Amino acid sequence: MSQIDKKAIRQKFERHERDTGSSEVQVAVLTREIEMLTEHLKANKKDNSSRYGLIRKVNTRRKLLDYLKRTDNDLYRKVLKDHNLRR
User: Fold this and answer.
1) 16 partner at 20 to 30 Å CA-CA among 7, 10, 22, 86?
2) Is 79 exposed, middle or buried (0-12, 13-18, 19+ CB in 10 A)?
3) Is the predicted pLDDT of residue 2 greater than 70, yes or no?
4) Distance CA 15, CA 43 (A)
5) Residues 21-54: b if buried by 16+ CB within 10 A, e if exposed
6) Tens digits of per-residue pLDDT, 3-52?
7) What single string gives the DSSP state of each residue in 26-45?
8) Selection from 51, 22, 78, 3 nearest residue 87 by Cα
9) For residue 38, what pLDDT is reported?
10) pTM tops 0.85, yes or no
11) Domain 23-83 carries which CATH code?
12) Are 4 and 36 in contact (CB under 8 A)?
């Protein structure tokens, strides 16, 4: 699997210059990692360790989105729209 460019993702979704931990940035990075793992698992159906990692990443993203929904509903809707996520 190839590396993702986390720096470019951060620059697109950051709140301020050194923002690495905000929920929007984390969701953006996780979304890209989930896309990469999904493509990998289409070609490698028996790679169960990657499947486990994918499930963990999806659950982490779900928890972050639940947190965003609880705290800032407008930002939550913007993040869903930016990443084309269904909830």
Assistant:
1) 86
2) buried
3) no
4) 36
5) ebbbbbbbbbbbbbebbeebbeeeeeeeebeebb
6) 788 888 888 999 988 888 899 999 999 999 999 999 999 999 999 999 99
7) HHHHHHHHHHHHHHHHHH-T
8) 78
9) 96
10) yes
11) 1.10.287.10
12) yes
Residue 72: DSSP 8-state: -
pLDDT band at 77 (very low <50, low <70, confident <90, very high): very high
Among the listed residues 23, 35, 10, 20, the one whose alpha carbon sits nearest the alpha carbon of residue 65: 23
> What's the one-letter identity of residue 79?
V
List the domain boundaries for the chain: 23-83
Provide the pLDDT for residue 84. Answer: 94
Structure tokens at 47: 């790679």
